[in-house]
Amino acid sequence: MNAMNPILDAAERLKALGSCGFREARDPVNQPMINNWTEVMGGPAWDDGVAPPAMIQVWTMRGLHPSASLPEDPLWAMSAVLDEAGYTSVVATNSEQTYHRYVKLGERLTVRSRLSDVVGPKRTALGEGWFVTTESVWYSGDEPVATMMFRILKYRPAPRQVLRPVVTDDNAFFWEGTGSGELRIQKCLQCGRLRHPPGPMCPACGSGSLSYAVAKGEGTVFSYVVHHHPAVPGRELPFIVVLVELTEGVRMVGSFDGGQASIGQPVRVRFQRIDETLTMPVWEAA
Ligand code: ZN
Question: In terms of Cα–Cα distance, which of 156, 154, 146 is closest to 76?
């Protein structure tokens, strides 16, 4: 136990409390809920007097407006401590359920949980966070009928970053070009055909001898979309994505900066430096 760390202190305190009180299911195990669940899950009808085992959590869900008088849940208590410390985001990482027997229609289940482990801080792809593991046991009367290990990551979201292009042997010349202020189009050395996006082989003559031409960076809007959803890291919604027909005759997808786009509108490229290794082409009204 690290007396200097309030998160670990809280974890030790909650672990020491052991299992919380029994929380009773709102309703007994019942056929209408089984029907709803199997319909949502896309499974076959289930009507043989017992519930699908994987439904176990359903029976003790709190509903939309949980009562304040419910026994304290250690996962909620630990989450509150982590929220307070700035680890405000959550993602479920593992869940393992063990079923001891089928539960029957009419059984009124109870559940109790305990905090089994808190590990952190860990650096993850999502941001720095803590893994919180709880164990829940469902009972019918005194008899345990199912057990679940449930682990979440409570994390501090990493600063928003842009989505980075995947740079390959085929398109590296393009991204090197944007970095030096050139819009490069792949060119076949055998037949002279221009193409975009780049590929390993000329689609016209099959040659693998490829180079590039430097485009003027001018064209017209061939088509566009206004992106409202979903959120994109590093971007404010909504934003406009244009398909530009370059004066060289190839089309290229890119961001549009400059209010409303319209089809046929003349545009020109500008280069937006993101960081040392990435410069994005952005289209604006010519
Ligand atoms: Zn060719």
Answer: 154
Alpha carbon of 159 to ligand 1 centroid (Å): 44
Same domain, yes or no, for 84 and 200? no
The answer as to whether 166 is a domain residue is no
Q: How far is Cα 102 from Cα 169, in angstroms, rounded to an integer?
A: 56
Cα 92 to ligand 1 centre (Å): 50
**Separation of 195 CA from ligand 1 center, angstroms?**
10
**Ligand 1 ion: Cβ-proximal residues, 5 Å cutoff:** 188, 190-191, 193, 202, 204-205, 207
CA distance 243 to 237: 19
pTM (predicted TM-score): 0.56
**What is the C-alpha separation between 164 and 279, in angstroms, rounded?**
10
Domain span at residue 31 reads: 6-157
Ligand 1 midpoint to CA 278 (Å) = 29
Supply the Cα-derived Rg of the chain in whole angstroms: 29
- Find the 199 Cα to ligand 1 centroid distance in Å: 12
| Averages of pLDDT over each 10 residues, the chain, 286 residues | 76 89 92 94 88 96 74 83 92 92 97 94 88 96 97 84 83 96 97 95 93 97 93 84 97 92 96 90 95
Q: Count structural domains, the chain.
A: 2
